[in-house]
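tokens incoming
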């Protein structure tokens, strides 16, 4: 008598029981995979965003610190300005190795003169920049010329067009940066020369002119000498320049980190509750089903089948149902995360970067293993009890 054939016959004979077990396994696998993907994806995205910014310290206007962090992380347009003279003040702080500035702008909202509505624009100074320029030299071999830009991973030239229109000005996209899962992926990086030319031309090309306040900047990027403590230098910068906040890279995005920590705690609690409930339900379903099949299993034992055969058959049933449920739950979870990625980002206010394919496969394997192990564990006690029962007693009841 074949264990697998006998197990499949038993499965086909009770579709309701099988559906309950599959659903429980699917919920367990889906919750496990979803929680891991969201937490891992958000954590990786925050790390990549800090790395992309490329500075040890970022100086922002104190009154708009939260808005600037949101702009850098989620790509939300913001109007935050500080005097350009602050760059010189930061440069003389002991421990500062390099200093540059950025200007944050945005395209017009729902305007025909802009290819993309409300796109975040990051303007840098090629003369002092040590963030975007290094990426350009490494990946393109040269810097950006007038009318050229580099975009995040989600920026592309519209089909049938040769350029991206910004305030009616044609911008040539030279390349795309690696994805970070943040608003930087939908941002455009361009030089100050190009930004000033766009502002000049926007008076006649655009529905509304691009205004760049003279003598104003949005952020200051600072690289600290290796022998100096970043936190100490950040405090000195904040003390020297009035009305600014100096954010050390390890301390950036604290509100998003707090959101992520709260989300982690909530997800873990929900995961424990749902997994525990699913395992209890699977155990009860198997116990009820095996009680109904006591006479049948007693006959199998009476005709010569050993205890191990019955025990292995029941575990094969549980394993097959657990694998089916885990696979279905994992597939639905991945589809849901792909379809509702933007909703997740908007709801929780955290970025999300989809893991690489190898990591995704590892996580799927982990969720399948978790759901399969859970179902087998829930079925273990009922299967052991019924397989070790005296066949003569089982057939009489």
């Amino acid at each position: 008598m074949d264990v697998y054939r006998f197990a499949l016959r038993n499965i086909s004979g009770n579709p309701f029981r099988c559906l309950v077990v599959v659903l429980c396994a699917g919920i367990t696998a889906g919750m496990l995979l979803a929680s891991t993907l969201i937490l891992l994806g958000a954590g990786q995205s925050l790390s990549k965003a800090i790395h992309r910014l490329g500075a040890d310290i970022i100086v922002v206007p104190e009154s708009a610190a939260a808005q600037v962090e949101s702009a850098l992380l989620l790509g939300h347009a913001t109007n935050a300005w500080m005097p350009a003279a602050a760059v010189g003040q930061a440069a003389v702080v002991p421990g500062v190795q390099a200093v540059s500035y950025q200007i944050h702008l945005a395209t017009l909202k729902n305007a025909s003169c802009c290819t993309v509505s409300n796109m975040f624009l990051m303007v840098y100074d090629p003369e002092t920049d040590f963030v975007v320029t290094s990426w350009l030299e490494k990946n393109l071999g040269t810097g950006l010329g007038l009318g050229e830009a580099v975009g995040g991973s989600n920026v592309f030239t519209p089909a049938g067009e040769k350029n991206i229109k910004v305030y009616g000005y044609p911008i040539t996209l030279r390349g795309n940066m690696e994805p970070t899962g943040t608003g930087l992926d939908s941002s455009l990086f361009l030089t100050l020369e190009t930004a000033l030319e766009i502002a000049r031309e926007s008076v006649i090309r655009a529905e509304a002119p691009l205004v760049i306040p003279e003598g104003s900047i949005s952020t200051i990027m600072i690289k600290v000498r290796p022998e100096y403590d970043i936190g100490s230098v950040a405090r000195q910068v904040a003390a020297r320049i009035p009305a600014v906040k100096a954010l050390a890279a390890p301390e950036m995005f604290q509100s998003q980190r707090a959101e992520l920590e709260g989300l982690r705690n909530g997800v873990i609690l929900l995961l424990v509750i749902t997994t525990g409930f699913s395992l209890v339900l699977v155990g009860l379903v198997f116990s009820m089903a095996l009680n109904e099949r006591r006479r049948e299993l007693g006959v199998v034992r009476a005709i010569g089948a050993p205890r191990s055969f019955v025990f292995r058959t029941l575990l094969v049933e549980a394993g097959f149902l657990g694998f089916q449920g885990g696979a279905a739950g994992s597939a639905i979870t991945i589809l849901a995360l792909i379809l509702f990625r933007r909703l997740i980002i908007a709801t929780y206010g955290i970025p999300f970067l989809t893991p690489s394919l190898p990591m995704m496969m590892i996580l799927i394997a982990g969720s399948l293993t978790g759901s399969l192990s859970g179902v087998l564990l829930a079925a273990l006690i009922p299967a052991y009890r019924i397989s070790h029962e005296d066949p003569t007693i089982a057939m009489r009841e």
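note: The two ends are 25 Å apart (CA to CA).
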